[in-house]
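Students often ask why inverse folding is considered easier than folding. One informal answer: many sequences map to the same fold, so there is more than one right answer. In these notes we will look at a single instance of the problem. The structure comes first.
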């Protein structure tokens, strides 16, 4: 196979370095995987188009909950008006009926009609296929497992393995310079951020103020939180020691990147592996990766979740027979010191000198976990202040406002985290009036999300979002709605697939829904209402293959996976999750639909694996497996 003469590393949050493609090995829409979850074969560059068959059947290819929603989406281009489906196990029909016609929808291409095959009533564990017939056309799905705690049981082992395989082990990080100083610090450990990126990030995009995602610190918190609160699940799966040790790996890294002054280093960065760039503790901005002094983490730039992770790791260390390089006592001291520091100076560490909604929900998570670890009233008081600020940011329609003006909150990575932070706050709040206020906020936010989804035809029940375009240095007046993140935004260049966002909304819908409705009255097993449970499952379904491309973004699982694009997406590991599907590249508003439309050097936007995606999918798997 001929390969390019220059291979450029690339990353899901930056501009890929230019390279000349000398040959293209194309994979179109059918990368076959064995049922044993073997990885897809490696490829150079690809162009993946929407399938154009007369009849298509799109189904979660990995796992469905025995007592949860289960449905397939059918796309049809023919003339027949009706059809039927049946569900089979070992060749025998176990369920079936007429296909349900869905409203007309042409936003992702004309000429298609959509139907749904809902087999939620099937609640016998097993491995099933769905068969659909419309007119003379017939199609059969690959197999899907239906069982209790399905997503966790099927995927947890590889999801945990993904973090271990992503560890950063280069000894050079024991002595790295801080930008614009002659100070050298030990920042060894942590995780490589993505398949094509050996940088390490608590967050990035800080210069854009409203886009900070929680990266390494979120991973450290999810591992520690789930290892501590869901130990029986991991123990039953034979994974408890692995996940505890990975939790401490993350906490050890957070200890190393906490400066003596009390702030965390935001990034360890070398312009995505540029041989001419010095690797250092530094801030950066834009698609050129220009170095800046913005390397002290505000709450929103990963520090809030780093504090939460260290506090939770301290609790885990108390209850664990295993340990990291540092003790639980040190983890807790770190968390308290960093929180005390940021309570005094946090706005100074933001690019605009002002706090916004991301500061609120991440600081709320920090205060909640510190209260859990210490039971000190001061942390409950801090949590109440942040919860009050977050609740005040709710608009009359139930959505949130990012700033002190009218910018709607939308986020390509963690759209569910405001709701999740309030759910975590409710767990520590003894005042029933405050609990009810937080619960009402959660209910309004989730109802607004369901309304957004239903405002237009939406066959896949994809989570829609409100936003304002940012163009020519100015935020537009008009609030728009759409399926995907707009490409004209404050970052100037950054948009990509939204696998993490969808999983975060799954967690928000399940956790928030459980607070809205007692489990005894819930329609199905998740503990949330029927509408929220379906919404939660559908977001996972999209990532796991029930999408217009019929591709499971969870590598090594399902029957078709994203192709390997080494030049712009790097390594692909089983348990890693690709960025996913976006709006059309030429659309400012993110309208239309696209997945890996290259070949070009921007394939990372769709194909590259990124730590937040597997982080959020693991949290979703654990959340759904923990029955209320």
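Output (designed amino acids):
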């Amino acid at each position: 196979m001929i390969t390019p003469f220059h291979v450029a590393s690339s990353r899901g949050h930056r501009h890929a370095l230019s390279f000349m493609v000398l040959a293209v090995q194309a994979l179109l829409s059918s990368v076959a995987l064995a049922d044993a979850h073997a990885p897809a074969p490696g490829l150079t560059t690809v162009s993946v188009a929407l399938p154009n068959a007369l009849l298509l059947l799109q189904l979660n290819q990995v796992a469905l909950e025995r007592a949860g929603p289960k449905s397939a989406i059918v796309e049809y281009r023919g003339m027949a008006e009706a059809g039927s489906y049946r569900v089979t196990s070992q060749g025998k029909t176990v369920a079936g009926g007429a296909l349900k016609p869905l409203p007309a929808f042409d936003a992702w291409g004309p000429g298609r009609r959509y139907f749904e095959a809902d087999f939620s009533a099937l609640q016998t564990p097993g491995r099933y296929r769905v068969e659909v017939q419309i007119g003379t056309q017939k199609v059969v799905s690959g197999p899907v497992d239906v069982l209790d705690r399905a997503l966790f049981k099927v995927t947890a082992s590889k999801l945990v393995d993904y973090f271990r395989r992503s560890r950063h082990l280069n000894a050079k990080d024991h002595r790295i310079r801080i930008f614009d100083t002659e100070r050298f610090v030990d920042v060894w450990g942590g995780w490589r951020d993505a398949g094509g990126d050996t940088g390490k990030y608590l967050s990035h995009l800080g210069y854009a103020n409203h886009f900070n995602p929680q990266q390494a610190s979120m991973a450290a918190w999810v591992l520690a939180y789930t290892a501590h609160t869901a130990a029986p699940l991991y123990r039953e799966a034979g994974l408890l020691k692995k996940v505890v040790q990975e939790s401490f790996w993350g906490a050890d890294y957070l200890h190393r990147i906490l400066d003596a002054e009390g702030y965390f280093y935001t990034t360890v960065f070398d312009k995505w592996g540029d041989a001419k760039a010095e690797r250092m503790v530094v801030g950066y901005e834009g698609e050129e990766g220009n170095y800046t002094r913005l390397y002290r983490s505000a709450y929103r730039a990963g520090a809030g979740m780093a504090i939460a992770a260290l506090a939770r790791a301290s609790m885990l260390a108390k209850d664990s027979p295993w340990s990291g390089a540092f003790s639980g006592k040190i983890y807790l001291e770190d968390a308290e010191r960093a929180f005390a520091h940021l309570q005094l100076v946090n706005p100074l560490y933001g690019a605009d000198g002002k706090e916004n909604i991301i500061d609120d929900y991440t600081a709320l998570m920090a205060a909640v976990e510190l209260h859990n670890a210490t039971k000190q009233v001061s942390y409950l008081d801090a949590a109440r202040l942040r919860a009050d600020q977050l609740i005040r940011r709710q608009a009359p329609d139930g959505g949130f406002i990012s700033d002190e003006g009218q910018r709607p909150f939308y986020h390509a990575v963690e759209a569910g985290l405001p709701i999740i932070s309030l759910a975590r706050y409710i767990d520590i709040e003894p005042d029933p009036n405050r609990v009810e206020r937080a619960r009402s906020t959660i209910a309004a936010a989730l109802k607004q999300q369901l309304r957004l989804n239903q405002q237009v035809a939406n066959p896949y029940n994809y989570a829609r979002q409100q936003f304002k375009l940012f163009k020519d240095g100015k935020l537009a007046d008009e609030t728009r709605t759409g399926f995907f993140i707009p490409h004209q935004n404050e970052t100037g260049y950054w948009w990509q697939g939204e696998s993490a966002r969808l999983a975060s909304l799954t967690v928000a819908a399940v956790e928030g829904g459980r607070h809205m409705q007692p489990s005894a009255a819930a329609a199905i097993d998740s503990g949330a209402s029927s509408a929220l449970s379906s919404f939660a499952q559908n977001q996972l379904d999209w990532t796991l293959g029930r999408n217009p491309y019929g591709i499971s973004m969870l590598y090594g699982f399902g029957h078709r996976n994203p192709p390997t694009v080494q030049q712009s997406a790097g390594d692909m590991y089983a348990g890693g999750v690709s960025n996913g599907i976006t709006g059309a590249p030429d659309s400012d508003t993110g309208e239309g639909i696209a997945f890996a439309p290259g070949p070009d050097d921007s394939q990372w936007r769709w194909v590259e694996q990124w730590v937040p995606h597997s982080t959020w999918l693991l949290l979703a798997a654990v959340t759904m497996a923990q029955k209320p």
